[in-house]
Amino acid sequence: MSLSTLPSRRIGDFSITAISDGYLTASLDFLSGMDPADGRRMQEDAGIAEPSAVHINGYLVRGAGRTILIDAGAGGIRQWGGRLTTNLALAGVQPSDVDTILLTHAHPDHVGGLTKASGEKAFPSAELVLHQRELAFWRDDGNLSRVSERARGNFQIARQAFDGYRDSLRAFSDGEVFPGITAMPLPGHTAGHTGYRLDSGDRSLLVWGDIVHFPQIQIACPDVSISFDQDVHLAAETRSRLLDLVSAEKLLIAGMHLGELGFARIVRTGEHYRVAYEE
């Protein structure tokens, strides 16, 4: 990947660039309401060589005097990702240049890249900004006490990220987070899972976080959720509602688990949706 191939879009006064962190592997057995063999066949029919590979994106937003990173990848946690900083450099950005990190949510593949192994901030000049419901969920010891051993590790990683940024941490409720950037609650995946809509000039884009993990499967079959969703039924409802909205508006989307092209539109034909990546 070179500077000339980093997927970028201009949204009025903003430029937004997809920054790949690499991949994680998730079994198709994690999908609910679908036979894994059917999921594998859908992936292969779409030309995906590794059906269980899930791509990880972050998004660099520059404009209005800010250098914003939306999510920070996995940072190599659990051998996931770890390419974000290298690819940021291809966009001409060093970690110290980032002044704001907006989180869609605090799962490990979104916050793992926020801190170094020492617990220090990986982005020393950045304010960490997220929805207050998301922050409250991961800080709640009652929630921690009710989850599986593996999920306990997720709490530890989220809390380490929050601790690393405790002197530069801001939680918001709803509405405009920065001029031209509005939070959109997208419940189901996590308690405070949030998308960010950019509106500038006559252009708009929605960074929709983790609405899908396997785009070729879950956009065609919106009722298929994944075990990473805290509420699989609510996640499916949110996905269906959002697919209807973005296809009707022909809204450009960006998503943390879209492919390396980073940007797409959702095309609706009758009752069926498909993802159309933008070169």
Overview of this structure, please?
The structure is a single chain. This protein is α+β, with helices and mostly antiparallel strands. It has one domain (3-277): Ribonuclease Z/Hydroxyacylglutathione hydrolase-like (Metallo-beta-lactamase, Chain A, 4-Layer Sandwich), CATH 3.60.15. It is built from 8 helices and 16 strands. The protein has helices at residues 36-45, 84-90, 108-111, 132-139, 141-145, 149-164, 215-218, 232-249, and strands at 8-11, 14-25, 31-32, 53-63, 66-70, 100-102, 127-131, 169-172, 175-178, 181-185, 194-200, 203-207, 225-226, 252-254, 263-269, 272-277. The strands form 3 sheets. The chain has a 7-stranded mixed β-sheet. A 7-stranded mixed β-sheet has the order 9-10-11-12-14-15-16. The chain is globular and about 50 Å long.
